[in-house]
Amino acid sequence: MTGCSYAARLFGLLVALTCLAPPLLARATAAVRVESLDGRAIDPLQLPADVKAAVYIFVSVDCPVSNRYAPEVRRLHDRFAAQGVRFTLVYPNPAETPAAIREHLTAYAYPPDAVRDVTHTLVKHAGITITPEVAVFTRGGQLAYRGRIDDRYVTLGLERPAATTHDLADALTNVLAGTPVRQPRTQAVGCYVADFVR
Predict the structure, then answer these.
(1) What are the start-end ranges of the H helices in 112-194?
(2) CATH 3.40.30.10 assigned to 34-195
(3) Tens digit of pLDDT for each residue in 29-38?
């Protein structure tokens, strides 16, 4: 192959790749979508101007560990919501209907914001594997923290009388102060998201 024909083929290949690039980029940067309880599509990473950070708490109606954390979620909401932190419960189990979710919110006095992630787009985007597990996003859409709420559960079935490390509270304190989260990833304990019927 001569130098000219090699250069021509290389140029042709570059042109072909350039033509393919926009669809590939579009797929890679596709918006994350979840569903409101009334069926509207929502981009959870688009935050209002007054929100400094968003906490997504992945829960399930039937997960006992999720349900045991309801009082702590309420305490964290009461502590941080006034400082510009939005708390949203995310239900990744497609079998849980909006009616069942509303009943769950009322029964456990959870904060009122809730969405369904039946296609697991936010689950995958944040790397969630467990309920309850949390993801904290900054205003720029950066994942600042992912993991457990605290260390009360050592393993499934083994629980401390009280938490000794308050991972979510510590992460939110760091985010609000504009400092890096000291431990941005921790291991949650609870029910596996992969077990939900899709």
Answers:
(1) 121-126, 167-177
(2) yes
(3) 457 899 999 9
